[in-house]
Amino acid sequence: MDSAAARLFFRRFYTYCTLSQSISHGSRLCARATARTRFRRHKITYNKLTAEQKKGLTASDVDRLSWVPRRDDPPPEVARDLKTYEWTTSAEFREKGRRPLHTKMLMRDFIEDSLYNPIYGYFSSQATIFNPGKPFEFNTIRSELAFQDQLGERYTEFEDALDSVQQNEARQLWHTPTELFRPHYAEAMARYIVENYRITSYPYNDLIIYELGAGNGTFMLNVLDYIRETSPDVYMRTKYKIVEISSTLAELQERSLAGALSSEGHSDRVEIINKSILDWDTYVPSACFVVCLEVIDNFGHDLIRWERKTKQPEQAAVLIDEDGDMYTTWHKQIDPLAARYIRAREAACDFQFPHPLSKRAKGIFPRKHSRMYTEHEYIPTRLLQFFSVLQNYFPAHRLLLSDFHKLPDASAPRTLNAPVVQTRYQRRTIPVSTPLVRQGYFDIFFPTDFRVMEALYRAVTGKLTRAMSHEEFMLRWADVAACMCQDGEIPLLSWYKNAAVMVTD
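and the corresponding structure tokens:
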């Protein structure tokens, strides 16, 4: 936590977020939308009371009167001063060491600042990746339910150990398939990489792997172990490069993996590059594999609505006032990246894709406005920028990408491609209904329309692709028998029904 005020915020926030059920641990896959009311600190309600009215109030009365449901649009006193709010970007706040105030930025910049700011961003200052300890021996586990019980026990042990060192009621803990299904998940990916490397590049080129966002480094270790064990000749020509945006995670990888890499003999094959892939500026002419696992769901998205009469888009910006309260403002001037995405999607997709203008809007505005504008949609503008980076700087790459094609109970059900926004407090997951929340304490992640993404990737890079479900990929490349419980259930397949894989063909 960065301050006592933040701890107080979480206690009050937790009080007002009513959970309909207890969410087990920090799985991003198990998100359930149970808190639907958005709150912001509003001093006017209490301050309007007279001194006589305040006399009989208890502390809980004061707290209750100081919280009111927040609105997306700015109040009149803020709207009048819109011209005094300067435009800023997430890049401008990387070194400032404080959260933005009295400013406005595009939605994608606000999301990036919330997640990746090096001082207070979610992945830089809050996120902790669960490590279950020794791998699960699935063949000795009775059933998938028994596996879930074991996982719950290990979660508790893991967090108890962390609390014994430093208590943290707002620890942001979550897990990845790499950690849960170690080493089988990573070995499936490695099997795919090695086989395709042998077909396309061996023995003329080295095997070069770029992993974006390596977390604890477990995937890297599992992949290198597998290649060395099964293909010593390929291992001798392997170079593994991690591209990590978070300075905190990059330092953690350097420290924690130094001993492991040395003991495993991999240290001379690994390079950790502390940089955002979106800022990449080094030309890589060599053939390589770019591995992108649960990364693009955290890419910045822009929020768009369409005027029904003119069929023209408007773009949302986030306005942050002097008190840190956040509002949405709408602008007819579309910035170049968002405009490029809209044009590219229209040109690349030779099929009907989900679009607010293509169906009757259910309306998230009051009735008097519902005829003017469509429902909102989030568009993955940074994803398009990522594909441009691959085309411009990695022309000989092969992409191996996995992410969620659907997320349960997104923050705004009537908004196309809406994200899940959630935090953890007292070991419970608390979803909220807007990304306009205190920066750094909430995970914000989006579903991916794989069909649209494929079309965009092909249009930008000129490469062919294949997309398949997580289950299809694992059935082809994983040691499924090693992941089978005694009753025949296979958690590796059943736990990720809402995930898909796309590869360069």
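(Above: one complete record from the training split.) The first strand starts at residue 39 and ends at 41.
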